[in-house]
Amino acid sequence: MKKKDKLTFRCQSCGGLTPKWMGRCPDCGAWDTLTEERVVPGILKKKKSSFLPEPVLIDSVAVKETDRIKTGVAEFDRVLGGGIVDGSLILIGGDPGIGKSTLMLQVLSKLSGSGKKCLYVSGEESVRQISMRGKRLDSHGASLFVVSETDLDSILAMVGQSGYDALVIDSIQTIFHPDVSSTPGSVTQIREAAMQFMKLAKSTGIPVFLVGHVTKIGAIAGPRIMEHMVDTVLYFEGDKTHVFRILRAVKNRFGPTNEIGVFEMNENGLSQVPNPSAVFLSERSAIAPGSVVTSCMEGTRPILVEIQGLVSSSGLGTPRRTVLGLDNNRVALIVAVMEKRLGMNLSGLDIFMNVTGGVKIVEPAVDLAIAAALASSFLDKPVDKKTILIGEIGLTGEIRAVGHVQSRIKEAAKMGFAKCLVPCSTIKQLSRVKGMAIESISFLKSAMEVLF
Ligand code: TYD
Ligand code: MG
Q1: Neighbouring residues of 153: CB distance < 8 A, sequence distance ≥ 6
Q2: What is residue 219's predicted lDDT score, i.e. its pLDDT?
C-alpha cells in the first residue's frame, strides 16, 4: 500500500464511511459492519463528457405500448406491470435457495423461445452446471447464451456489441471490478457494478436483471443504495418448506407496486399458479373450529387465504403468542379488543395463529377473520364453511371500512362461498353478486352473534 492511499472504513449495511474503525456504524447503528477500504486517488474518476443531451418537449416523445417485451411467463409479466420495459434495470432479491436462478433461467428460456437473444451471466455456477439445471428445467432456446464470469469489465465488453435483447447477472454479489480494492460483495463493489449495469441498460436499451441475495433482516445484502438506483425491485419470497413462491414488486418505476405473481416449485422447476385462491384453499379440512377464510388484496388481485387460530390452556407463567404470516402487533391488538369488548378471557391462554400456504399478510382487512378464528377456537365452535369475513377492527370494537370490497366478494363467489360479512359502511357501494348473501356488520360483538 502506498503512503498516499488513504484508509477508510465502510459500513457493509448502509454504505456509510468513517475515517476510523468503530464497533458500531455511526450512520445506521449496525454492529460490527465496518470493513477496511483503501481509497486509491483518481482510480474511479470518470471522464467528463463533452456530449450534452438536448432537452426535448415531453409531448414530442413517441411512446408505444409495444415497447414492453412480454416474456411469456404471465405471472412474471404481471409483476413487472405488463412486460419488460426497454433499458430497465431490475433487481431480483430473495433468500439463498429460494429459486431466483431457477426463475431467471426459465424466464430467459421462454424469452429466447420468442426469438430474443438472451445472455445469462453466472458468477456462482459453471457453464456445465447451468446447462445441467437448464436440461432439468427443459430450458433451452436457440438464442439463449450462458457464460460463467465475475469480472465486471469482461461482462461489459462481452455485452457491448453483441446485440443481446436481455441480460441476467446472477448474482450481483459475485461481480467485481478489478480496480476497486474491496472484496466482491462489499458495498463499494456492488455499487460500482450496479452503476455500470445501469449505464449499460440506459445507453443500449438492453433490459438488465440483477439477482441479489437478501440478508436475514430482509434487506438486499450490501447497500440499500442499490434499491434507489434500479428501476424495479422484485422480491422472490416464500417459505422454503412450502412449494409456493411469491414474486412481489416493491418498487416499480414502470408499473404498479405490490403486484404479485405466484409460482409453485416442483422437481421440474417453477410452474405458474394462475388461480392462487384455489391452491391456498385446497387443503382446507371439512369443518373445524379455528379455521376462517378471508379475502386479502395482493396488488390489484384478491386472493382467498385460510387463517387458523388455536387457543389453548398454557402451562407457562407468560402464555405463548406465536404468530406466523400475520403481524404480531395486530394480533395482540385484536386479542385486547376481544378481551375488553367480548369479555373473552384470553390473557392466560396460549395463542397460535397461522396463515396456510406460507403467505404473509399485512393488511388490516383481515382483522375480522383473525378475531373470528380465535373466537372459534376459544368457543370450540366452527365457522360456517361457506362464509368469508372482511373488515378492520378498531379499538372500540367497531368494524371499519376496507378497500376493494367488491372485488374481494367477487373472488369469494367465484370460489363457491355463499355468505360474506362486510363492514357496514361499505355496504352502500356494493352491487349484488350472484349467489352471495352479504351481511353488514358494525361491531365485533354483532359479528360474533352472527357467526356463533
Ligand atoms: P435456486 O434457483 O438455485 O435458488 P437461488 O438462486 O435463489 O439461490 O434454487 C434452489 C432450490 O430450488 C433448491 O433448494 C432446490 C429447488 N429446486 C427444485 O425444487 N426443483 C428444481 O427443478 C430446481 C432447479 C430447484
Ligand atoms: Mg442462485
Answers
A1: 177, 178
A2: 60
Same domain, 225 and 329: no
Model confidence over 44-99: pLDDT tens digits? 555 555 667 788 888 887 776 557 888 889 999 989 988 999 889 999 998 888 99
The confidence score (pLDDT) of residue 443 equals 94
Residue 142 CB neighbours (<10 A): 8
Q: Does 276 contact ligand 1 (Cβ within 6 A)?
A: no
- Strand extents, DSSP E, 12-80: 17-18, 34-39, 68-69
Distance from the alpha carbon of residue 146 to the mean position of ligand 1, in angstroms: 18
- Domain annotation covers residue 57: no
Grid cell of 51 as nine digits: 456530449
CA gap 86, 165 in Å, rounded: 9
Minimum CA distance residue for ligand 1 atom 1: 99
pTM, 2 dp: 0.78
| Ligand 1 site, residue 136, Cβ cutoff 6 A | yes
| Nearest atom (ligand 1) to Cα of 240 | 14
Domain that holds residue 299: 279-451
The per-residue DSSP string of 13-37 comes to TT--EESS--SB-TTT--BS-EEEE
Q: Tell whether ligand 1 has an atom less than 6 A from the beta carbon of residue 100.
A: yes
pLDDT average, residue stretch 328-351 = 93
Q: Which of 265, 266, 271 to mutate to test the pocket of ligand 1 (most atoms within 8 A of CB)?
A: 265
* Same domain? 219 vs 284: no
**CATH code for position 198:** 3.40.50.300
State if residue 102 touches ligand 1 by the CB under 6 angstroms criterion.
Answer: yes
The answer to whether the bond into 171 is cis (omega within 30° of 0) is yes
Residue 35 pLDDT: 83
Identity of the amino acid at 385: K
- The percentage of residues in the chain with a pLDDT greater than 90, rounded to a whole number, is 44
How far, in Å, CA of 140 to CA of 118, rounded?
Answer: 11
Looking at the CA of 92, name the nearest ligand.
Answer: 1
Whether residue 264 sits in one domain with residue 284 = no
Does residue 55 fall inside a structural domain? no
Same domain for 106 and 223, yes or no, is yes
Instruction: Tally the domains of the chain.
Output: 3
d(CA 73, CA 84): 11
Mean pLDDT across the chain, nearest whole number?
86
**3-class secondary structure per residue, 170-189:** ECHHHCECCCCCCCCCCHHH
Q: Is residue 47 one of the residues assigned to a domain?
A: no
Mean pLDDT of 332-360: 91
pLDDT for position 378: 95
